[in-house]
From TrEMBL:
Residues that span the membrane, as ranges: none
Coiled coil: none
Organism: Aegilops tauschii subsp. strangulata (Goatgrass)
Pfam families cross-referenced by the UniProt entry: UQ_con
Record PANTHER family: UBIQUITIN-CONJUGATING ENZYME E2
Domain UBC core: start-end pairs: 1-109
Protein name (database record): UBC core domain-containing protein
Keywords assigned: Ubl conjugation pathway
């Protein structure tokens, strides 16, 4: 949880360790996940705090574009925060992302 006073548990912080054999290997990425009042019927919004270059991430804000990330585009009530993070990590290893030049490590949006 991002805020201990958030009694509705809407704001979360996530961490992804970059997958092996990619430009992301060994990097630690921080993300913010926010669930509005319609969660879990509606997908959370997801934004990288750590700078990253991925096809589904807005290069200026770090927001994950739901239209470009299938988990958010095809959201199902049964999905969890863990599922979102796991699928983002898999997406880092996908052909279109695994070798993209990355911003310097330790930089943030």
């Amino acid at each position: 949880m991002d805020d201990a006073d958030d009694i509705y548990m809407r704001s979360w912080t996530g961490t992804i360790i970059g997958p092996h054999n990619t430009v992301h290997e060994g990097r630690i990425y921080q993300l913010k996940l926010f669930c509005d009042k319609d969660y879990p019927e509606k997908a959370p919004s997801v934004r990288f705090h750590s700078r990253i270059n991925m096809a589904c991430v807005n290069h200026e804000t770090g927001a994950v574009d739901p239209k470009k990330f299938s988990v958010l585009a095809n959201w199902q009530r049964e999905y969890t925060m863990e599922h979102v993070l796991t699928q983002l990590k898999k997406d880092m290893a996908a052909t279109q992302n695994r070798k993209l030049v990355q911003p310097p490590e330790g930089t943030f949006f």
